[in-house]
Amino acid sequence: MDVGAINRGGRPQPRVLLRRIREVLAADQPADARLQEIVEVTATNMVAEVCSVYLVAPDQRLVLQATEGLNPASIGRAALDIGDGLVGRIASTGEPINTDDAPNTPGFRLIPGIGEEMYQSFLGAPIRRQGRTLGVLVVQNRTHRRYGEDEVEALELIATVIAEMTDSGALAGGQNGLKSGEQGPLMLRGVGAAEGVAMGRVVLHEPKIVLQNPIADDLETERVRLHAAMDAVRGDIDRLISGEGQSSRQRADQLLRPGEHRDVLEAFRLVAHDRGWLRRLEAAVAGGLAAEAAVEKVQSEARARLERTADPYLRERLSDVDDLANRLLRMLLGVAPPSPEQLPEDAILLARTLGPGELLEYGQSRLRGVALEEGSAGGHAAIVARALEIPLVTGLKGLIHAAEADEPIIIDGDVGRALLRPDGSVSAAYQEKLTLRAQEAALFKTLRDQPAVSKDGVKLSLMMNAGLVTDLPGIAESGAEGVGLYRTELQYLVTTRAPRRERQTQLYERVLDAAGDKPVVFRTLDMGGDKQLPFLKGEAEDNPALGWRAIRIALDRPLLFRMQLQALIRAAAGRSLSVMFPMIANAEEFHRAKELIEVERMRHVSEGREPPREIRVGAMLETPALVFAPDSFYREADFVSVGGNDLLQFCFAADRGNPRVADRYDPLDGAFLRLLRAVVERCEAAGTPLSFCGEAAGRPLEAIALAALGFRSLSMRPAGIGPVKRAYRAVDLGEARVALMALLASDADSVRPGLAAICEEMGVKL
Q1: Which residue in the list 380, 604, 683, 759 is annotated as catalytic?
Q2: Using an 8 Å Cβ cutoff, are 97 and 125 in contact?
Q3: Residue 615 has what pLDDT?
């Protein structure tokens, strides 16, 4: 026994233990023998009767690769599924397990034949690198005892070393079988976070970093290196935000103007200056790790914590953590940051996560699209991608595992799909699609200034949806008649505290200025559900889409709501202001919200300020209950806008975020169209303007059906305006209406086939 590695209390001294492991790694011997000697040294120095290493095999099972104390004949044979047993739980959660009674710990499973029946105490730590679980390191004893904090720390440090050396091939398993070897075409489904289609070659955002020596030779040297790298990274982020340097200004000019995207970068700077992050890095170095290994250890621990949280805002911090860790590693290793000039002309960037600063540094000149394994449509990378007009798909699980650099790939942000190594016919089809889009875009430009009038003379108003100031040029480019829905919540999602009234006012002023004489309808804060306010925590809900969200939060937190109303009123001084409330379920909610607007308008006037020329107050109809609200509601609302996405979801009780049911119900289902017809009749009887906002509005066949029902205003993504206008100008709406009513009177569930046939007979391009 190497007693020098054990302190007086019988506990390990991590630095001494790491020095002994460094000697093992320096020895000239096969990789399997190195790993076996590491478990023997660890068992001896932690006074453990068993030490074992399980590594993830290519089939994603945890296989026993080395052991001291268990049956050596089980090496390479004993295996567990991830999530199975205590070892599998550690691999699944990324968190250690420490128990003095393993057989009675929830999840325990005995592997027959390996000889662990007599061991009571169990301590296991995950072997993780760059967010990937590579395996699990375990120590066991026969006596009932709980391992101390210093023992947990020692095991985690050893697990970090094993992760680094396993990934580099210095230990058994070489690169851990991370590549499947699959060379055929692969299609993955995710979520379209920024619309558009891109074809190109794979560029891996996180190139493989091999650390030859993860163990520190001199602690003070490593501490100095760490601080120098952190200072340099913070300086780079400050310069990125301030726009110093010509290249930074050229790459980020669009995003460095005040607005939501600037807030994204400010939030990232807060992460870089977090003292807790630096303290954890210093502790890892003090434990005996080289600065690079310390960064990866703290990164893996942070990811393990954030991956388990149900809070969408905290989960979005994963990209910030990875961005900061990647910058530190590049700085420590002397690796130059990504440069747009080094990218191929048709680069498609693949990453697990991506921070906003990293995306900015790639620029727009050669980057055709981005594909992420994690993230959401409301995440920081998505906000920046939309501002840069770069197609982005998120939620592509397994993509990094399957892809190699420079392979061909197609990403489709319109439908949320990635096609890796597509065959010739698929590539040809998408190339034809892109060519056709380019031709259609040229045709749509000729229609841009033409009215949306059917062949029988019925005018339809086509509006666009927006959520960023940088979306507003889409009004002129698409031919939209205004903004039918401006989402105000993005400004709230990218900050750790409620935006100040002055900042909100400035944003809304810029929106109105950019729109010019075109109308803008501001939807008040629509939070809750899958969009949690980072500074307003609610209780966990079993059904968040049906819970505390939207107008319910606004009425329960009137100070937050009133601040937004004040900002809207100030921004619209002397101009027309249109405001609509989301998720109204009954008339009382609408009346209460409308009264608050009037209170704030009167306060504004009493302060001697110029009020808006007029204030139009409407409701977003997203719940079936509001369809049957009292007549007084329809008379008092200045306008009603059907929120088609949520109304469809609630009509069929189908979560639109769940891929198993999201596409099961058709917006052209007869039941849904009859519900919409009831809304049209209520609004017509009250003389209340009505519009439809949602994905269906941007599809030609659905748009024709909506117009045939009686809708005269549709709001959609800008790219949908051209196709809808072309189709609508070719249709005889009276004939389409007769056909639609006949179809609704039939027994067919969906009117889609019949209506499509009628439109094709008219020569309408769908």
Answers
A1: 380
A2: no
A3: 97
Question: Could you give the count of Cα atoms lying within 13 Å of 468 in the half-sphere of its Cβ?
Answer: 29
Task: Note the pLDDT of residue 147.
Answer: 92
pTM of the predicted model as reported, rounded to 2 decimal places: 0.62
Of 662, 575, 679, 555, which is closest to residue 620 (Cα–Cα)?
A: 679
The answer to whether 4 and 44 have CB atoms below 8 angstroms apart is no
- Nearest alpha-carbon partner for 80 in 29, 8, 141, 135: 135
CB 416 within 8 A of CB 439: no
CA dist., res. 392 & res. 385, Å (int) = 7
> Where on the phi/psi map is residue 452: left (φ > 0), alpha (ψ -120 to 50), or beta?
beta
Nearest-angstrom CA–CA distance, 568 and 523: 11
Q: How far apart are CA 613 and CA 574, in angstroms?
A: 5
Block residue for tokens 């189709």: 727
Residues 6+ apart with CB under 8 A from 91: 54, 56, 62, 82, 83, 126, 133, 135, 136
Catalytic residue among 51, 651, 693, 759: 693
Contact 41, 14 (CB under 8 A): no
Q: Compute φ and ψ for 30, nearest 5 degrees.
A: -60, 155
Structure tokens at 86: 């205590």
Q: What was the pLDDT predicted at 303?
A: 75
Give the type of residue at 92: S
Alpha-carbon distance 506 to 523, whole Å?
A: 17
Q: Is 651 a catalytic residue?
A: no
Beta-bridge partner residues of 126: 136
Residue 693 among the catalytic residues: yes
Write the DSSP symbol of residue 659: T
Q: How far apart are CA 464 and CA 721, in angstroms?
A: 8
Quote the strand ranges of 430-564, DSSP E: 461-466, 483-487, 520-523
Quick one: pLDDT at residue 32? 87
- pLDDT score at 742: 95
Q: Give the residue ranges of the chain where pLDDT is below 50.
A: 1-9, 174-182, 245-261
The answer to whether the CB of 155 falls within 8 A of the CB of 96 is: yes
